[in-house]
Amino acid sequence: MNLTHLDEQNKPKMVDVSEKDNTLRVATASGIIEVGQEAYNSVVANTAKKGPVLQTAVVAAIQGTKQTSTLIPMCHPLMLTSVKTDIEELPQLPGFKLTVTAKLNGQTGVEMEALTGVSVGLLTIYDMLKAIDKGMVIRNIQLEHKSGGKSGEFKRETPHR
Question: Which of 41, 78, 122, 137 is deepest in the core (most CB within 10 A)?
Answer without folding.
Answer: 122
